Amino acid sequence: MEANFDPSELHPLGEYDFEKNFNQLAAREWIEENWQKTFLFSSIYLIVIFGIQHFMKGQRPFNLRLPLTLWSFSLTLFSFVAACRVWKLMAFLLLTKGFKQSVCSQSFYVHPVSKLWMYLFTLSKLVELGDTLFIVLRKKKLTFIHWYHHIYTMILAWCGYKDMAVGMGWNAAVNLSVHTIMYCYYTLTALGLRVPNSFAMTITTSQIVQIMGFITMNVFLCFWKDDKLCPFKWPTFLISCGLYTTLLALFVNFFMKTYLGNTRKSKGN
Q1: Which of 48, 236, 240, 260 ranks highest by number of CB atoms within 10 Å?
Q2: Are 83 and 173 in contact (CB under 8 A)?
Q3: Chain-centre distance of CA 122, in angstroms?
């Protein structure tokens, strides 16, 4: 266990046997040995999606309504359950230790109620690359922001888990919550249901707020980096700063073009 771990944080929170029995030491060892393969996964991912996109130019789009519905619903269910379990520990830390400790604590990686879900959250960033297959096979528009954020978040998640990076508890709790709403939206649209445009706008807004929150958290970590109770590693920190600042710019640009641009056009007409 790391230097800042407080055994009192292992307060029982109604964890299940399968959560208690999960071997987080073996999981972390596996990630430490394999995290660099995220660069290989990223390369294969780019070759596959752009290769399929090129091939599909002369083909009719596939009708993947059922597979897409099942895919999106599965990720909705996973995100919801994982979010609930991670938030359970987060709520305990906020109420008993305060905000700073909720950011700096590494107990998310070892506590029975969250350790399994933190590992699955890390692996889910690899699984989520599958989202792009549905885009290219259905001949939908593939944007830079889509594949860029999929690759970068996977690398950051695996690197963060390897280092037991502080702040990742908040990252997982918030991101899983946003993904619950996002994949629920994808599930509804895959079913052919008409969802108000305001729903999609709300999701994009929540993603921007999420990124701004993570940037703010990194600012706090700069002030806390000399605190022994808040382990700080520059490589992971710099990767996260690079991701969040670029994503903020990309998502704000996407929001303005997609929603505000359409509003201006409608008013002009």
Answers
A1: 240
A2: yes
A3: 8
Domain count, the chain: 1
How buried is 146 (Cβ within 10 angstroms: 0-12 exposed, 13-18 middle, 19+ buried)? middle
- Environment class of 261 (CB within 10 Å of its CB; exposed 0-12, middle 13-18, buried 19+): exposed
- Cα angle 182, 118, 85 (rounded to 5 degrees) comes to 70
In a domain, 8, yes or no: no
Range of the domain at 201: 23-268
Supply the pTM of this predicted model: 0.92
Structural contact between residues 169 and 90, judged by C-beta atoms closer than 8 angstroms:
yes
Would you say residue 112 has pLDDT above 50?
A: yes
Query: Which residues contact residue 154 at a Cβ distance below 8 angstroms, ignoring those fewer than 6 apart?
Result: 38, 41, 42, 125, 126, 128, 129
Compute the average pLDDT of residues 190-203: 92
Query: To 10 degrees, the CA torsion angle through 220, 226, 227, 229?
Result: 100
Q: At what angle do helices 168-190 and 144-163 cross, to 10 degrees?
A: 140
Among 166, 50, 164, CA closest to 104: 166
In a domain, 174, yes or no: yes
Q: Is the confidence at residue 56, as pLDDT, over 50? A: yes
- CB-based contact 222:103 (threshold 8 Å): no
Burial of 117 (0-12, 13-18, 19+ CB in 10 A): buried
